[in-house]
Amino acid sequence: MHALVSLHDAVFRQVERAGNWLLPLAARFVFASTLLLYFWNSGLTKLGGGFTGLFSPSIGAYSQIFPKQLEAAGYDVSQFGLFHKLVVLAGTYAEFILPLMIVIGLLTRLAALGMIGFVIVQSLTDIYGHGATDDKTLGALFDRFPDAVILDQRLFWVFLLAVLVVKGAGALSVDALLRHRIEPAMA
Questions:
Q1: Does residue 181 register a pLDDT over 80?
Q2: How far is Cα 27 from Cα 173, in angstroms, rounded to an integer?
Q3: In angstroms, rounded to a whole number, what is the distance separating the alpha carbons of residues 72 and 176?
């Protein structure tokens, strides 16, 4: 029995060591393959036309981020102030910049933390702004149905991002390259 426990410990010590670089890389791969284009496509729907669209959000941006306020304003974006425009632009830029930072592994912990905040705000906007409170969309934790968009699906997203907050980007990342360049200079 002692030999079996020793073998188990030896094997899983190696698995744990490999997990320090494999888990962050796998988390970034899963993010890139499942969520990168989701967020980028969502960001694209918020941009206005042409180059100036980078600074002039579409009405769709306001309808996604401030749905009740836009309806109350009669869908007239000119009724919105600078604050609303800045929030819409920040949310739009975040959908492009934060996912890219995660995929390439640049300031990954901060980018993943930012994405967790983004997903929470996105979920609250869906619930309170868009009224997504039906059982199929909102879902419930600890039920037998694992397919609700908000509580089930986004909990997985947040868990994936939390792995990156805790573990960082791993060895194959811009963070690792920068760390290796900075460490010898500091010595």
A1: yes
A2: 12
A3: 49
